Amino acid sequence: MNTNFQNELNTKLAEFNIKYYQYLFFDRNLVFPPDIISTYPQKWLNIYQNKKLYNTDPIVNYARITVKPFSWHYLMQSIDTEDNLFFKLAKKYGIHDGYTFAVHDALGNLALLNITCDDDTQITIEFLESKKAELLILLIDLFDLYLSQKKQSEYYRNKIHLLLSSKEKQVLKLGCDGLIYKDIAESLGIAERTVKFHMSRINRKLEVSNAKKAFLIAKDVGVF
């Protein structure tokens, strides 16, 4: 996911002194796994993603059918035993109670912001209740920002995949890996001036002024 978006998310939540959260974005097509930004323990994130728990997560399932923010305590009172096992597993990693904010758009995209209670920073259910309106507005603003950056990422991703030749993609990837022109030339068995020629074509196709910007775009949209 776009690092600029992640930085913006961290900055905005820090204004509420919120440290432990999970942001999920589900594309309307539901073909790909959700994009996830989280400060939860990495072991839990690995389990969540590797076991595809987002498909059975009771928080996600409930968020799909409501626009109202809700506490997990409220949710646990109304779900069956199998779903409670999800919360028992999460609790092992310090994720015991919290609040979820959800936003849907007319196209069927869904974004969730899960905020975990934290005694150290006094993030309690009562605190989240008192900030409910502000946090929901924040999520809506973040949702718009995410869609805007996602659209831009898809624009550049398509340009790289469709407009760049195979050799240009190789040059771009090696540049993203940190190689200088001389090393790229040696790696590909071509002259350094040929690398510069390919790079000038890449810059023109991506509509950027220099190689540094091209490398940043390629890294940011995750094509390599």
Written account of the structure:
By secondary structure, the protein is an alpha+beta fold. The chain has 2 domains: 150 residues, Transcription factor LuxR-like, autoinducer-binding domain (Beta-Lactamase), CATH 3.30.450; 57 residues, Arc Repressor Mutant, subunit A, CATH 1.10.10.10. 56% of the residues lie in helices and 12% in strands. The chain is built from 11 helices and 5 strands. Strands 2-1-5-4-3 form a 5-stranded antiparallel β-sheet. A hairpin with a 5-residue loop joins strand 4 and strand 5. The longest helix has 32 residues. 24% of the residues are buried. This is Response regulator with CheY-like receiver domain and HTH DNA-binding domain. It holds the Pfam family GerE. InterPro entries: Sig_transdc_resp-reg_C-effctor, TF_LuxR_autoind-bd_dom, TF_LuxR_autoind-bd_dom_sf, Tscrpt_reg_LuxR_C, WH-like_DNA-bd_sf.
